[in-house]
Amino acid sequence: MAGDDGAGAAERRLMLARTLAALDALPIDQREVLALVALDGMSYREAAEALDIPIGTVMSRIARGRAAIAAAVGQGSDVLT
User: Fold this and answer.
1) pLDDT (tens digit, 9 = 90+) per residue, 13-36?
2) What is the spatial distance between Cα 22 and Cα 8, in angstroms, rounded to a whole number?
3) How far is CA 17 from each of CA 12, 23, 33, 57, 59, rounded to the nearest angstrom?
4) Which pTM value belongs to this model?
5) Once rounded to an integer, what is the mean pLDDT over residues 30-53?
6) What is the C-alpha to C-alpha distance for residues 47 and 40, in angstroms, rounded to an integer?
């Protein structure tokens, strides 16, 4: 049905807006790491080398950032995996 398609599209736009707002609200260190890994496709090791930080720090920032975004958009913690 056309109404279902419109409702689904509206829901997806709302989810995208919430996700972008949550991403923007993250501390810069978490945003940087998420951008490198989730958007630029870097491995954790590559991101660690690019930022000159330990890989464990990358993993921690990714986990905290994903959890914060998932909480903000009302999804489970697997929303960005």
Assistant:
1) 988 898 899 999 999 999 999 999
2) 21
3) 9, 10, 20, 28, 25
4) 0.76
5) 96
6) 10
